[in-house]
Structures are given as structure tokens and as C-alpha cells.
Amino acid sequence: MKNRFRDLPVHVVLIGLCLIWLLPTIGLLVTSLRPVQDINESGWWTIFSPPKGHEEYQSLCAPCHGDDGNAISAADLSDPEVVQNYRRSFSLISALERDINGSPHMGDLPVPDEYQAADIAYKLRTLSGIEKRTTFTLNNYIDALTGYRGKSTYREDCEAGTQSLDLYCDFRDLANPRGMGRAFINSLLVAIPSTFLPILFAAFAAYAFSWMEFKGRQWLFALLVGLQVVPLQMTLIPISRLYAQIGLNGTFLGIWLFHTGFGLPYAIYLMRNFLGSLPHEIFESAYLDGASHWTAFYKLAIPLSIPALASLAIFQFLWIWNDLLVALVFLGGQHPVMTYQIGNMVTSLGSGWHLLTAAAFISMALPLLVFFALQRYFVRGMLAGSVKG
Amino acid sequence: MGAEAGDELTLLYQWSGSEEERLNEILKPLVDACGIVLKPESTRDQALLDTKVQAGTPPDVAFWNVAQLVQYEDMLKPMDTLGAHGENYADFFKDPGTVNGKWLGLPVKADIKTIIWYSPVVFEVKGYTVPTTWQELETLVDEMVANGDIPWSMGMESGDATGWTGTDFVQDIMLVQQGPDYVLGLISGDIPFNDAGVKQAWETYGKWATDPIYTIGGAQGTLSTGFLDAIYKVFSDPPEAMMVKQSGFAGGEVASQYPELQYGTDYDFFAVPGAQGLQGGADWLMAFNDSPAVQALIAYLSSTEGGAAWAKASFDLSPNVGAAGNYVDPALVKKGEALATTSGFTPDIGDTIPGGFGSAEFKAISDYVNGADLDAILDSLAAVQAEALQ
Fold first, then answer.
1. How far apart (Å, rounded) are the C-alpha atoms in residues B336 and A186?
2. Out of A115, A333, A347, closest to residue B40 by CB
3. How far is the alpha carbon of A152 from chain B, nearest alpha carbon, in Å?
4. How many residue contacts between A and B have a Cβ separation below 8 Å?
5. Which element (helix H / strand E) includes A237?
6. How far is B31 from chain A (nearest CA, A)?
7. Most exposed among A85, A182, A263, A366, judged by the fewest C-beta atoms under 10 Å?
8. How confident is the model at residue A2 (pLDDT cuts 50, 70, 90)?
9. Same-domain pairing of B303 and B190
10. Which of B37, B121, B237 is best to mutate for the A interface (most A CBs within 10 A)?
11. Domain range spanning residue B89?
12. Peptide bond preceding A104 in cis form (omega within 30 of 0)
């Protein structure tokens, strides 16, 4: 009991820090679930305020027109054609200032000011169905996944049959080259081999550097580790030229090779440190029993280094999943990956970022899954290669 | 044309989203007729274009800014050798695309900037009339202030490019106060940027842009309000301001933000009153390759059919004469008429002077709105201008 109170300040600080970190993400999530017009009009925190215009309508209009607006049949406020004429505050105010049947429209009540009138006009648009907005919608996600780029939403266009030529309005739209669905697959096609290949080669190399005697081993290792300092950006143009000559630009093979090449130095370094720290005795007794290097590698080294492999895989995977630069240069628009596609959700004028918020969450989904599934390897991964006790 | 089915054509452009869809619509007849396979890439990162060109793998065709025509002068194929129909373009559209006597850039998409957006319904209710002279505009602005309305929504936040709506506004004021020849003189360097005429225009702008009775939020509002939000604020309910000076694209933004509004009654535009000529910009097609597919594309886009297809797709204005009479969107019809009948056309000063003058100008106007000394700002801009044009 005493201990818990002693830790309380720490916990409060930690929770506070977590909230500060999480707040922008929560804002993004809420925004991604709101209709585009709402996003442009008001901040995400306004979802907690009561529906616009409801209160004003109840106090000023409901006594005569009824809660649903249809109490007076001659002025049915649930009829879109009637409301069409009063859809904005100005037209509404001028109507309210006019007399009906010789007496003031509002009776004893004051005519609402333009802010109240705007809210009431919004309420009328909702009542009559001119305004179809709901507080939350999945449309942004659907539009982002299918690559919908029209003026309303994918669902509305498909219901009305006015979708653009490259949409089918069925599950095939998930493969639309402009959508996040296709980009998700492309990102997987890039990330999985680009994670697997360097780790495979790094494991071979690390075993050799740790347990095979050959001349110049330390020099070669030092050279490989030293390669980590080569900045990736510097090599974009030469490698792009080389790829152009051998026809690898815009192919998955090209980007796999690039990521493998740049992932290897660090992967070898990390794996070598891990394998090198395993007890000599295990390997020596294996060799005495007649095990070849190959047997020792896949029967001993690999099973023992699962934690290192996992943490390496996580980091390599996340880096490739989040990479834009390499994908942009070597794959570009031919096989758009998620990062590329997210950037293209917004037009050159900066509109369309409701799609961007949804797209960001779609691209976040897999890393989150990987993180929670392999959480315990994260800490080990961060400590791998550091001081050993 | 000689293009065969299956020929590939790589394109690089800055359009994305719904803009890309319009382009596809325009190119569809060509694709259907010739069987060309389009390999488009979309990015707003100029580094990608530069990387591709330096790596020796430029796109066949890039749609980019006028400054790249100068940058890649030696690598671009002249339009006349590619079968472009030059007769379909006015001289003031061909001139900016001509470098050292070679016609290197085909203007494909144009927008006019010298217009002011407003709400006719609101004007009617409030008793305001559309001004026809600059004097009337100033009177109208003061009348609005007297009534307690805020006349302008001048927000100009736009990330790295914050300030561009301000420099557009100033250039329009110069078209009113000095005329198009003066603006062209600034672009050619004959008139230094610290000239008295420039200062007068900046001061006219500054009077409105920094005062909360003239624009939403005063100087801070101008600096921190996004340019799209600035458009929305004029058409929100109730409106926060009466007018916004913004290029032709603003209409499309209003339509998507407020689908219940109708062009012509709820939102409309008028030309900046008293402006002599129009300010506008264009996106330029440049060809790094002269393959049959490229020639087919250029022949198509520069033909009258291509201009008509562009107009029908409602993808802004087309400088191609074939576009005239083919616009379906009423706002574009009106803009197209303005463009077709204009007495002069000046490109954006900042886009046209090379060597980073544009971003210097953006920064300068942000500093000015923020309260920095105008003479010092214009002197340093004149230095940048002189260096860029020497």
C-alpha cells in the first residue's frame, strides 16, 4: 500500500506524458471519422458540443412548427422544397422579418440574430434532408481505400450510378491503383522480402564472422560495419542510373535489392554481436560431435538468436513500411506504396485531407499490429548490442 | 501519328486526387484511339523530377512550372518539332514558354487570378453592389466597415509558400495602379522592385491586410489563416467576411465545402475593378523525348479537339483556342470569356523571375504584414531581382 503511494507521482507524470503523446493521434482518429465539410468547418473537439441549431430551434421554432417541423402543413419544414428557399441565415432572417397574415412571423419572440439564424438554417437543412451529414462516417475510409476522387463520396456516387469510369462499385475497387487498398498490398510486397532478405544474409554473415576462422575476418567486419556511414540519399542517383541500364527501375526486385543492401551493414553488426556473445562451449561441443558449420548454423545459431532476429525484423519492417524516399525514387507511381499514396490523397491546392487522415490510419494499422504482437521483443531489440552484464 | 498500340508514355505531374481524374478524362480519347499505355507519376516534390533527369531517366513528358523550361532548356524537345499546333495559342501564352527563341513549353492548364469572389445573396441582403472601378471598390470597403461587416478575408498561410495569396493581391493592385507593361517591366528587370509604384501597391495592400477592421483577425489573421479557410470564411453561414480575392480555383473549393450552394446566386466572382489586363498562371507541358507517343500526346492536346476536351472536363481553363465555347461549368464559362477578351495577360512575377525570387517575395510579404519596414524589404527584394536577372 505504502509503495503504491510512493509511486503515484511517477504514474501521474507517465500518464500525463502518454496523454500528451496520444492527443494528436486521437484528434487525427476523430477527424478521420468526420464528414469532410465538418472537418473544414470546426475542430475535432467540437464533437462534444450539442448538435448545431437544436437548442435554438426548440426554443424559437418548435412551439409553432413542432419538433419535426411538420406541424403546420402549409409550411412543412421537413419538405426540402420549402427549406431550399431558407437554407442560409440571410434568406431565413428576411423571411422571419416579413409579416404573415398581418402579424409578425415570430409573434412576441425576437427575430434571431444571424448566428442563431445560421444554426437554425442548419437544423432546417438537416430536418428536411437537404443536409445529409452525420456526426461520424466511415466514408473517408471507404473513399481512401477505393481511391475515390470525385466530388461527393464513393457510396453516394455508386448508389446514384455516377461513379467514374475506373470504379466498379464492388470489391474490385480495393485494387484500384489510386486507392489505399492496392497500396497496402504493394507495401507488403515491398516490405516483406526487404525484411526477410537482409536478415537471412545477415544471419549467414554473422555466423561466419563469429564462428568461422578465415584470413582478414576482422578487417572485413570492420569494413562492413563502416559501411553504415554511407548516407542513403547520396546513392540515389548512381543506383538509379545503374538500375536504368539493367532495367530494374520501377520493379519490386530493384527495391528489394536496394533495401537489402542498405539494411545489411547494421543487420550484420547486430547479429554478429548477438551470435558472438553465445557461449563457445555449445558450438565447440557441436563441432566435436561432428556437426558441420551448416548444421551448427541452423540447429544452434538460428534457434538461439530468435530474439535478435525478431527485433531486427521489427525495425527493418517498420523502416521500410514508413519509407517514402526510396519507394518514390525506385517505384514511384508504377507500384504505389502507402506512403506515396498518402501524399497523393491531397490535391496540389491542399484540399482532400479528410482522405489523408483516414489513409494515415489505414497505414498505421499494420505497424500497430506488429507492435502489439511482438511487443516483448522491442525492448530486447533496443538493448541488443548494448552493454552486457 | 505513328504511335502504336502498347507504346508507353511516362508522365510526371503535380496533380493528384480529383485533378488526376480530370486529366484521365481528357486523355481518354487519345488512349482509346492509339492504345498508348500511360505511366503517370504524381508528386509535388521537384527533387523527384531533378533526380530522374540527372539519373538519365527523365519522364517522357513532365507537366511542371515555367521555371523548369529554363532549367532544362538543353534537354527539352522544341514543340514545333513535335507537331504542336502553335496556331491555337495566343502569343502571350507562347512567349513565356519560349526560351532563347525555342518554343519549349506547351501551356495546358491556365487559371486567372485577377478576380474577387463574393456572395451575390449576401450582397443583395446587405445592399452592396459590385464595384466597377477601383474607386468604387474602396468606397464599398469603407461602407462595409461602417456597417460593421468585415470586407476582406485575406488569410495567406500555405506552409512553405505562405504569402502567395498576398503577392497575387499586390500584383493585381499594380495592374490597377500601373498597368500590365509595368508588371512586365518588373519581370524583365527594367523596373527595380524598390520603385515607387511597387511601394504604392504594397501600401495599398498593407492597409487592408494588417487591420482587423478590414480583414479577419488583422495582421495575425492574415498570417495564420490557411488560404483555403480564408475562402470558406466568406461563404460560411453566417459569413465572416464579404469578399476574398482568390484565383479561379476558389469556386471549386466552395462547391465541395458547401454542396448546397449554387454558383451564380450563392457564390460568384467579379474581375478586380479597374485592373488593366489579367494576371494568370499556367502549367506547362515539356517533353524530354520525341517518341511517337509523345508526339501523339502533344498533337492531341494542342489540337482544337484537345482544347475542347480540356474545357469539357472542367479542369480549369485551357489556353487552347479550341476550348472557347466548350466549357460546361458556368463559372468556367465566365472565366473563359474573361480570358478570351482580356487586353493583356501577365504571368505571376514570382513564378517567372528565376533564382528563388518567388520564395523571397513570399517571405517579404509575410514580414511586411508582420510589421517589418517596407523600404528595407523592397530594397532587399530589388537586390534579389537584380541578381536573378543579371
1. 42
2. A333
3. 8
4. 119
5. helix A236-246
6. 14
7. A85
8. low
9. no
10. B237
11. 8-111+282-337
12. no
Which of A233, A245, A310, A298 minimizes the C-alpha distance to A271?
Answer: A310
Distance from CA of A20 to the nearest CA of B (A): 24
> Do B132 and B197 share a domain, yes or no?
yes
> Which residue in chain A is spatially nearest to B250 when comparing CA positions?
A349
Q: Tell me the domain boundaries of chain A.
A: 2-48, 54-128, 139-175, 180-383
Residues in chain B with CB shorter than 8 Å from the CB of A85 are: none
Chain A residues touching B283 at Cβ < 8 A? none
pTM of the model: 0.81
Identity of the residue in B45, B227, B238 whose CB atom sits nearest the CB atom of A115 = B238
B147-185 pLDDT, tens digit each: 999 999 999 998 888 999 999 999 999 999 999 999 999
Residues B148 and B209 in one domain: yes
Give the Cα separation of B244 and A11 in Å (integer).
51
**Chain B CB contacts of A333 below 8 Å:** 39-42
**Are the beta carbons of B21 and A149 separated by less than 8 Å?**
yes
The DSSP symbol for A216 reads T
pLDDT in the model for residue B3: 78
Instruction: Give the number of domains in chain B.
Output: 2
C-alpha cell at A311: 527485433
Rounded to an integer, what distance in angstroms lies between the CA atom of residue B89 and that of residue B301?
Answer: 12
Classify domain A180-383 at the CATH superfamily level.
MetI-like (1.10.3720.10)
Give the domain CATH number at B198: 3.40.190.10
CA-CA distance, A323 to A334, in Å (whole number)?
Answer: 16
Interface of B with A in 44-103 (CB under 8 A): 44-45, 48, 51-52, 54-57
Give CA–CA dist A136/B198, Å, rounded.
Answer: 50
